[in-house]
Amino acid sequence: MIRMGMIGCGSMAASHATTFRPLDGRMRFTAFADIELERAEAQAKHASGAIAVADYHDVLDHVDAVVIALPHDLHYPVGAECLRAGKHVLMEKPLALNRAQCHALVEMDRSPDPVLMVGYVMRHEPLWTELGEAIRTKRFGEVFHVSIWTEQYTDDSRGKWLGQAARLGGGQLFSHGCHYIDLLLHWLGEPVSGTHVGTNLCTPWMEREGTSNVSLKFASGATAYHFGTWGARGSRLRYSVHAHTEQGMLELDFADGTLTLYRDRSGSDLPALQALAGPGETVESANRVVIARRSGAATKPVVAQMAAFLDCIEQRKTPEISAAQSMRSLEVIWRLYEAEEAGVVADLRGV
Ligand SMILES: NC(=O)c1ccc[n+]([C@@H]2O[C@H](COP(=O)([O-])OP(=O)(O)OC[C@H]3O[C@@H](n4cnc5c(N)ncnc54)[C@H](O)[C@@H]3O)[C@@H](O)[C@H]2O)c1
Question: N or C: where does the chain have the smaller number of CB atoms within 10 Å of the terminal CB?
Fold first, then answer.
């Protein structure tokens, strides 16, 4: 039974103690730390026998592993200390604040002894995974373009570290967009070039961009676009993905929980839409079919992520998203930021 600690009990940690019940036989929370003690205490209430402390050093004697869910400027110092103490670490994305701190953690990484895994929870979301596998395996033929939209409103972070570039490591793209740059690299392979234009217009709580537009080109010839905003006062797309393939356009509508194939042209070279319908789905329109739908029974992504972390510890495996691996998407973002500042297209070869 792995003794787990949680360092940082803010929005990420909310209700974690109860969320992880499905992993009861494999781990138990034994310690919670937050500089605002009452936040640690609120979590500890749900985990019998767990301690709550304000100083994270005080968890180290009570745990085998920790989840670090802290402001980004604390990822490196706290992560390094936990690794030095021999604790397995699940670091909430991004790995750390900047290149130097990330490289230092990569240098320290001795996974699986102890494990250092970076938490990119969208990698564990079933519909996103299904779409990603369809793209990676060319299930609907070659994929020539993917667009991802994420539209949120975050003015409740006014005055908090999330708006401060020096604590966040950048703006919306670095903090939230890193999930989607990570997915685009995972789905489409080697990036070759790209651009970023961002603005903090209408998100004055952000020192750097609150709204971000990224265009990427990949070695396969495929292109990708990512629009992310923390300033959406309303939204229709919310979290959506469009992937254009040789056999039609795949749409992930995350709010609706559906993955749909759209096809306007017909032809004997294309499989009939009926053949592509997901389990229990029928073709109700001549130009589209639902190929997958969110299942209420599916494991929650944070639980699947924690299970992957436990697998690494128990089976002495290197995590799929290791410290070094997680730096690829961050390196893309740093090069995009630098190119934006210089007014040029970013060279992304070799990331
Ligand atoms: N995977 C996701 O989908 C997702 C979503 C949100 C946030 N995150 C990540 O989780 C991490 C935390 O984000 P959040 O939104 O929970 O932030 P938050 O501000 O809500 O929580 C951070 C917590 O850390 C505590 N803290 C600050 N300094 C501390 C210290 N020295 N010692 C102990 N505790 C300290 C704060 O009091 C606060 O409770 C970040 O890395 C963020 O990017 C991930």
Answer: N
Q: Would the CB of 305 count as within 6 Å of ligand 1?
A: no
Residue 16: band (very low, low, confident or very high) from pLDDT cuts 50, 70, 90: low
Assess whether the C-beta atom of 36 lies below 6 angstroms from ligand 1: yes
Burial class (CB in 10 A: 0-12, 13-18, 19+), 140: buried
What share of the chain has pLDDT > 90, as a percent?
A: 88
Buried-exposed string 85-119: b where 16+ CB fall within 10 A, e elsewhere: eebbbbbbbbbbbbeebbebbbeebebbebbbbbb
Give me 313's structure tokens: 């510890």
Ligand 1 site-directed mutation target among 34, 326, 330, most atoms within 8 Å of CB:
34
Residue 77: CB within 6 Å of ligand 1? Answer: no
Which CATH superfamily does the domain covering 2-121 fall into?
NAD(P)-binding Rossmann-like Domain (3.40.50.720)
**Nearest-atom index, ligand 1, CA of 162:** 19
**CATH architecture of the domain with range 123-293:** 2-Layer Sandwich (3.30)
- Tokens coding 341: 């500042």
What pLDDT, in 10s, does the model give residues 137-175? 999 999 999 999 999 999 887 779 999 999 999 999 999
Query: How far is the first Cα of the chain from the last one, in angstroms, to the nearest whole number?
Result: 38
Domain ranges in the chain with CATH number 3.30.360.10: 123-293
Please state, in angstroms and as integers, the Cα–Cα distance from residue 63 to each residue in 22, 67, 136, 186, following that order.
20, 11, 38, 32
Distance 340 CA to ligand 1 centre (A): 28
The 3-state DSSP class for residue 194 equals strand
For residue 315, how far is its CA from the centre of ligand 1 (angstroms)? 29
What one-character DSSP code corresponds to residue 23? Answer: G
